[in-house]
Amino acid sequence: MAASGSGMFIRCEVDEPAASDAAIAKQLASVCPVDIYADDSGRVRIVDSNLDECILCGLCLEVGPAGAVRVLKLYDGGRLLERPAAAGA
Amino acid sequence: MRFYEFEAKTLLGMSGVPVSKGGTALTADDAARIAGEVGGDVVLKSQVLSGGRMKAGGIKFASAAEEARTAAEQILALEIGGQRPRCVLVESKQPVKKEYYAGVIYDALAKLPVAIFSDLGGIDIEQVAETHPGHVARVHFSTFSPFPEFKMKELVASLGISGGELNALTRIMSQLAQAFLRYGLTLAEINPLAQLDDGSIIALDSHLDMEEEARDGQAALLARLGIGREETRLARPPTPFEIRGAEVDASDHRGVAGRVVEFDGTLGCVIGAGGGSLTIFDAIRKFGGDPANYCEIGGNPSVKKAAELTKLILSKPGVGKICVIMNVVSNTRVDIVARGVVKGVIEAGYDPAEKIAIFRIPGSWEDEGFKILEKYGVEYCDRSVPMSEAARRAVEKMRKAKGEPEVVA
Amino acid sequence: MSILIDERTTFIIQGITGREAVSMTRECLDYGSKLVGGVTPGRGGRGVHGVPVYDTVKEITSQQRVDGSVLTVPPAFVRDAAFEAIENGIKLLVIVTERIPRGEVAQVCEHARMHGARLIGPNCLGLISPGKSKMGGIGGAAVKRAYTPGHIGVMSRSGGMTTEISNTLTAAGFGQSTAVSIGGDAIIGSTYAELMPLFEADPETEAIVIYSEPGGPMEAQLAEYVRATKSRLPVVAFMAGKFMDAMPGMRFGHAGTIVEGRADTAAEKIARMQDAGISVAEAIQDIPEIVRSRLNGKGA
Lengths: 89, 409, 300
Description:
The structure holds three protein chains of three kinds. Chain B is built from 15 helices and 15 strands. Chain B is an alpha+beta fold. In chain B, strands 5, 6, 7, 8, 9 and 10 form a six-stranded antiparallel beta sheet that branches. In chain B, strands 1-4-2-3 form a four-stranded antiparallel beta sheet. The longest helix of chain C is centred in the first third of the chain and has 13 residues, at 19-31.
């Protein structure tokens, strides 16, 4: 079952089979600077309370097969975060 | 952070400076008991963090335990400068022959500590320096060990003091200066430093200040004196609103969203950082705004922290709108602050478009931030709008919301 | 020209692996600064955006010329890190860290003086000579929008306001020779008056803009400097924190803003500066126009 979660501003989605891949779960948990992803006994779990802390760094997008991990900006019509983070000043 | 006189005297005593015999009392009965133990004439002093105690009736003399009880009752019931006394200090009353002043501060231009000595003690040293400059001597000294005691000797001797008095005063000046360095103080004053009829020299009153920055390094001393983290020791005690602000700031180590100071007004302020907040606050007042609070957002606070601060400000009775203004930001992210503020407003049950009078934070990640504000219909502006203009617009919106006529500042 | 740093200035970052230092490293490199190394004890052998990390300053200074160091280590480690830089011959220290006890700042100042090193900060965002080099986080990633090369020297007790003011100058067509965030603490390594002779000696600098605050004797010292030296440079000041005059003993803003004497309120400072011929702007957006009129010789 895919992992996903929505905050007020950010939604994260991880498709199967990536979401139940132990290596990916471990990597996502270690790479995210604001702890949006947790490694739940080898499965990816989205920590809902941290979703809105996302700093759009895009590091999670580099984990797993292309497109399996998605970050959506809910304040921008659900636009997908690209890698590397295209925004900035 | 200012120390109470009784704390200052404990610290001086630990450093070898002679102080009067006595103790602190929380009740009139305790005061009477201490007076009895001390014996003879006593002085009772209200323990508040402000000057002018004598004038306000916070210092009384007594010659017997019963008299001390009555005096302590009056002192403990007396508010001075809006402060209730922490306790009353009961000390043996000393026959004074002469009063000196001893002080140590940092000289921000020389970037060194400076010891100050005067043979006209008992009055404000700035006043003595103006009216009797020849009676004030100063000497800078190194912050490195070993401590140059000879400089304190030269300091005292420069006012024409010699004999046993010179040696006693040199020793006390040195002890004071070393306590200043050792305990991370920013002000160490003994005033008056009194010579008694018997020739001995003791500290009759003392004012010591420690800066916030030194508190972590002085945790052992503060624990020994029983001073907790929550004691800010500013000009007035923190209000419950300010204490909650400090809790929000401490809840998360990321960035700063705190240093909240409560005011009476209706315009909530989510502003930053150190210099920007001063500039914005001045502008709000200049345009006739009535701020509900001062605060500082800086570093890179988490969304949660910015949201909690926003909710706290909105929870204050009378707050109609908030303004969110900062200088052009370098490391704080516009989008993170925007998310936090919008989230805080929504979680408090309001519409961001209505509650946020203006959002003016230009700088890093502003494009993302402005998208958020657009989605929620919040009025925002970029760096082409000066900070003071943003403040003016906020004040104007607040005024219109209250149905007051427009004022040209 | 510029003061303190230019395109040839080499420097290191002490505490380079910290969260904020990593972004600072990226920004300095992107700006073209000659950032030649970093130090974090125990992390030697790694790299941050291609900048080699060492365990000691000596490992870098023994290999190459190092003009400066940016210190962004936690408060408890600043004094020792500063001593390490100074004793390894580095002559320009920029201390970014805030919340360092005053006594330790005094010790670093004393040590720097003994070794002929200059200190900027603490509690600052660094400095920039636009188009040449920036040392520290000043201006952030969008630094080029706020800072442009030009002839105004900027000095500010607030890091953020250094950028706000420079941005206002840039928008009005005034670039900067060097902008220095001098730091918000009660004791700082270089005061306005101590940096003035450098701007004075820089033929490119034509005017000075400062951001000032209540607390401390630095503005009075600058006023005295301007009066005594009859400086060729017109000085325009902005004074924040006027509201604090009515609230003595309360702490707002930087550690250095606490009013400790009679001479360091906002009102008193404004009067002193004006007496010395320094123009005091009522609002940030008024600064460019005052600079323009001062440069045209219209007086204070």
